[in-house]
Amino acid sequence: MPQTRGPRPTTKDHVTTALTAAVGLDPANEDWVAFHRRFDHYFPALERLFRSLYGNRADWLEQLTALLVQSARSWHQRPAELKALDARQEADPAWFQSGSMLGGVCYVDRYAGNLEGIRQRIPYFKELGLTYLHLMPLFAAPEPESDGGYAVSSYRQVDPALGTMDELRELASDLRDNGISLVLDFIFNHTSNEHEWALRAAEGDEEYSGYYWIFPDRTMPDAFEKTVREIFPDDHPGSFVELPDGRWVWATFHSFQWDLNYSNPDVFRAMAAEMLFLANQGVDILRMDAVAFIWKQLGTPCESLPEAHTLLRAFNALCRIAAPSLLFKSEAIVHPDEVILYIDPAECQLSYNPLQMALTWEALATRDVSLLAQALERRHSLPAGTAWVNYVRSHDDIGWTFADEDAAEFGINGFDHRRFLNSFYVNRFPGSFAHGVPFQDNPRTGDCRISGTTASLCGLEADDPQAVRRILLAHSVAFSTGGVPLLYLGDEVGQTNDYDYAREEGHGNDSRWVHRPKYPAEKYSRRSDPSTPEGAVHAGLKRLAEVRAATDELGGTRLVPFHTHNPRVLGYQRPGESTLILALANFGDDLETLSAVTLSGFEPDAVDVLSGREARLDEGLVLRPKEYLWLRVSARQPA
Ligand code: GLC
Ligand code: GLC
User: Fold this and answer.
1) Ligand 1: residues within 6 Å at CB?
2) Mean pLDDT, the chain, as a whole number?
3) Of 18, 92, 505, 597, whose CB neighbour count within 10 A is largest?
4) Ligand nearest to the CA of 233
């Protein structure tokens, strides 16, 4: 008689057995119960994702099992303080969508010297109302050139000039005690050429050569370069650089930043370990650097391939199991159709909003809000459980990432318009107020992007009388369309370009340093004097932050378009429970009028929550040049 056999063990059974053997998943231990629960919930997704990336390999299940054992160990080591945070955030998953979120970003060394200096600035961060602090890359990196730290030599070592991993952990904890989440980059597309893996690969070690895209000669590089775009043509043409031994390594960005090869599951596992390590130091949000580039396939542009999403989702599922409160922010500075694809609770819960950023500058230059209004109408809405990070500028250049198809609807030619914007912002266009600097000007392709601080691009350096108002107008948009507003610290006191960058070692040929000035101490010292531009900018921004935090309608990301029937005036509605905020912003240089008919969808009584002033909408509205209003109104009740 044949024996009746039980059901075949599933992948999950296999992994569970291995986990129990390796880490002893004790069912009586509360900590493991929590792990089990999340493992049960997220394992099926993780398995599916992992399998779709690596299922064609004989060892895929072994790899997946090893990944989970490693992650269970990481959970085991996760500090109690962070496990408590995991539980709190699980109970309040919408915490990052709250209207009181406010982000700040800075370089540790330039803004405060070192990690201890950052810790000492916590009182100021609180004064400003920050709840989110993005510290630019602070890990060990090559000297003098490291792309501002975006070439990481070890994810487990803080740059000794800035402090130690212990100090970072303490800082994260102090920030948390003050209601501020710590955001760090996860630079996972590439490592520096000084990372241990890269050093071994350079020596010819076979295992570590497999961590990167290294080829013996130009055959494959030539084939790939037929379809990939050049990112840093000033540094090297194409995407590959030659090694001393004659081999070629993929380097999308600088020659010292080597792209990791995620088609190798060892790389996935190694980077997952680094990710969970950072999570366990108390990092709340990882800014996922250069997400578009992480998967390569011959014959494609090697940007935003479907597998890039699968990879991010696999990392996300792993976090849900082993570091559940960790969130991802996507850095995809690409076509708006592609930006949106990274934003999902199962992928990146947060994303930069590069389109709104770029179009805010576009509207300031053209005094026409058509493209910006169109973007808010059709490209603002996000899946539930996610949020934008809205910024006026970042540490990077401004690239004109709008869709040519969108612009064409207004009869605008994308190529020509970008040329105009570039010449406007580098002050080659008659009447321009902006003092920007070109970045990666590529005469061969006509591509160019813009560097410059907010204040310099808004005309403060040129003493333009509207400069302060432009700075505030741009921020009023970032603070009210919905999502986390992100301030580049120092911009709140109107810091201008730092032309000395060209003399700094390792910075000379990268114009982005022009907008990464050192802590502007003098400007900060004038921040309480409203008669100075610093004081005016600071007061205006503080007002925006305070009012936003106190205005329920401005939480979340839901936005309803509003047609002002005036191309100089941007309008949008942020609906609340019974009232809504009607935001209006005059990008023009003159007084602009909105008629009573245009405003007739609302009850006539309105109040500007920023100034407290009342308005009668049935009399129409007049906005001064660069004036912005956040009007609390009610929808008109049917008579
Ligand atoms: C991101 C960073 C940028 C860096 C690049 C390469 O785009 O924001 O500063 O140069 O990645 O890591
Ligand atoms: C990003 C963008 C690119 C930008 C660069 C760094 O990944 O794709 O447009 O210029 O990094 O500045």
Assistant:
1) 147-148, 150, 187, 253, 289-290, 331, 396
2) 96
3) 18
4) 2
